[in-house]
Amino acid sequence: MRDGSFATLADVLEHCASAGGTTAGGPLAAVGRQSPPKDTFVRGCVLSPRDRADLLAFLISLTDVGFVTIPGYSDPFAAPP
Question: Is residue 46 part of a domain?
Fold first, then answer.
């Protein structure tokens, strides 16, 4: 998820709810939720449409694109003034 493999937060929620992703083609084609080595503790979650919408709205509310454009915070490797 952190590698940009999902285009939207809604896609991330769907991935988590299904307990694993599906790779449709190629040499690594598989259904993640059916992977034998996956721990049985890892399972999907059932969210009502309302809960899913509420969770998505909450996650979107945490996005602050303005903060990273403040020069003092935008480059963590910049020399202090």
Answer: yes
